[in-house]
Design brief:
Elements lengths: L19 H8 L11 H4 L10 E2 L17 E13 L4 E2 L4 E8 L3 E7 L5 E7 L2 E2 L1 E6 L14 E6 L9 E9 L5 E2 L5 E10 L2 E8 L19 E10 L3 E4 L2 E8 L3 E12 L6 E4 L1 E11 L4 E10 L4 H11 L2 H12 L7 E5 L8 E2 L6 E2 L10 H12 L4 E3 L6 H19 L4 H9 L22 H19 L1 H14 L3 E3 L1 H10 L5 H16 L14
Parallel strand pairs: 1-5, 2-14, 20-21, 21-23, 24-25
Antiparallel strand pairs: 2-3, 2-4, 4-10, 5-9, 6-7, 6-10, 8-9, 11-12, 12-13, 14-17, 15-18, 16-17, 19-20, 22-23
Bound molecules: zinc ion.
């Protein structure tokens, strides 16, 4: 049973005066907000500057034109949440502070933000701004169950000149609602309930657009930013944000504020603010020899789970160090400063997600679950997906292809599981109708997590490429991607160029390799080129 707020902290629940805190305080370095420029001193009033125009209300994603905003670039999010698990509500003191730089002369600009939370004020560099909210356009789905994305429109008291740094504070409160996706799965701020009515906090899984259900943001991966997350919760609850724990401080009214900092650029869909009665442990570390760094491991398991389920979670999670070491030898040094996981008990979610530094596992009806294969999949995403991110949602094949490949390759090499070559054969020999949706032309947001085109086929495409060029060149290619596109995004063209350039093939065969990738990514039918066509 999940607890009510008046219960004592379960064994293992963190308390703020424990001896671990002093060490934890040394880990994080709070990111600094960009220096604010006084807009009133710099800029023309919006009405006086004909050149000052509204920022774009889309970043033109083929599947999600509702998402993303132009005219500025976010450098840092500081998300302060005052959360009451008993009512699943955000109260006074909840404010998101966004440090950005203008990339055009702005008369107004927008954030992605759902209308379920009530905004009490918006300031820019301390000056009150006017704001309103509306649905983003166009309609995402005809299905009335699907959540329509919202926009927060902000009009500064004076225009913001291109190149100016500015700081926006949005103060809000209320009950965040999860987002229902086009495939009718739920994401974003999900109330963490093991059964209906048995709820102990929040479970944040934001892919693709869920972040805007709990903080205003430029909700698109081309605008990565550093993040600090301060979550105030009643004593006895643990709150997990993105990155490393900077402090854990007792506050008034029997509350504790957990402050986390992530100083590596983060896509909004990979952020966390998960709260619950967790068995929490940050005493473990792992050593990544490729980067010569020791990383803290933050572990959180829903304390209400059956003991056997929690033991199985710990057993699976004990593979994190060897999994990270296996992957870093192939993909390059681990890209972030900590690792960990949240094994919650929220069966309504039904999937795991690769939240940056802390993969989230939703568990099933019986309790928290971390599947060992899924764990490797989510760890592989830390490189492929989180560090190097697909540039559009149409290109999610990049994230999922690599994670699927890594899961199979690891299983074969470490556990003696099915060989990657056999996996390739199974995929290419499977029913023709599996191939109707092309990975790079998904056609609809409802196909975003479609198993065959998004996971299996791109995973097999990568395995086929490995068979064509050999493991040495293949993993050199992977490391080139994580070097050249670190903390950034990648689209299809540079991916294919790098694969061809790193192939060592002569011009004729290199041309055939381009056709191979085109077929595997774009053909609405079975590809005809396989590794057998490249054997000399
Ligand atoms: Zn994945």
């Amino acid at each position: 049973m999940n607890g009510s707020p008046d219960r004592d902290p379960p064994p293992g629940a963190a308390v703020c005066d424990d001896p671990g805190i002093a060490r934890r305080l040394l880990i994080g370095t709070p990111a600094l907000l960009a220096t604010a420029t006084t807009i009133l001193g710099l800029c023309l009033p919006a009405s006086a500057g004909a050149a000052f125009t509204p920022g774009a209300t889309t970043l033109g994603d083929p599947l999600f034109p509702q998402i993303g905003n132009g005219g500025y670039d976010v450098g840092h999010y500081d998300i302060a949440l005052n959360y009451a698990p008993a009512t699943n509500s955000l109260g006074a003191g909840t404010v998101t502070t966004i440090a950005a730089v203008a990339t055009q002369d702005l008369s107004s600009f927008t954030f992605d933000f759902q209308p379920d939370l009530q905004i009490s004020g918006v300031t820019i560099d301390g000056h009150a701004a006017t704001f309103n909210q509306r649905d983003a356009k166009p309609r995402l789905s005809r299905n009335p169950k699907v959540t329509q994305p919202g926009k927060l429109i902000i009009v500064p008291p004076a225009g913001i000149a291109t190149g100016s740094n500015f700081v926006v504070k949005v103060t809000y409160s209320g009950v965040p609602e999860p987002i229902t996706d086009a495939d009718v799965s739920i994401e974003g701020w999900v109330r963490a309930c093991s059964t209906p009515g048995n709820c102990d906090g929040s479970f944040t899984v934001n892919e693709p657009i869920g972040a805007q259900s709990w903080f205003p943001c430029n909700n698109y991966m081309t605008d990565k930013a550093t993040v600090s997350t301060e979550i105030t919760v009643p004593n006895g609850y643990t709150a997990l944000g993105t990155g490393e724990l900077a402090s854990c401080v007792a506050g008034p009214g029997e509350t504790t504020t957990w402050s986390w900092t992530e100083d590596d650029p983060t896509a909004t869909y990979l952020t966390s603010a998960s709260v619950g009665r967790f068995e929490y442990d940050d005493s473990q570390t792992l050593f990544d020899p490729t980067g010569s760094v020791t990383l803290p491991i933050y572990a959180a398991i829903d304390s209400a789970g059956p003991a056997s389920a929690k033991d199985e979670v710990r057993d699976a999670a004990s593979q994190i160090p060897s999994g990270i070491n296996f992957l870093s030898r192939r993909f390059g040094p681990y890209p972030f400063d900590s690792v960990g996981y949240v094994a919650d008990w929220v069966p309504a979610v039904g999937y795991a997600l690769e939240n940056q530094t802390k993969p989230h596992f939703a568990g099933d009806k019986r309790g928290p679950v971390v599947d060992p294969g899924e764990l490797v999949h989510e760890l592989a995403h830390q490189w492929m997906g989180n560090d190097v991110t697909a540039r559009t949602w149409q290109e999610i094949w990049f994230n999922e292809g690599w994670a699927t490949f890594a899961e199979i390759y690891f299983d074969a090499r470490v556990n003696g599981g099915e060989s990657p070559k056999k996996f390739f054969r199974t995929v290419i020999r499977s029913k023709g109708k599996n191939f109707r949706i092309a990975p790079a032309d998904l056609g609809s947001a409802a196909n975003l997590f479609s198993g065959f085109p998004v996971y299996s086929r791109p995973g097999a495409m990568l395995e086929g490429y490995r068979e064509i060029v050999g493991s040495k060149r293949f993993f050199a290619f992977a490391r080139a991607l994580t070097t050249e596109h670190a903390y950034s995004t990648i689209s299809e063209r540079p991916f294919v160029n790098a694969a061809v350039n790193g192939s060592g093939l002569r011009p004729n065969a290199a041309g055939k390799l381009r056709t191979y990738f085109r077929q595997w990514l774009h053909r609405e039918g079975k590809p005809t080129l396989t590794p057998a066509d490249f054997r000399r």
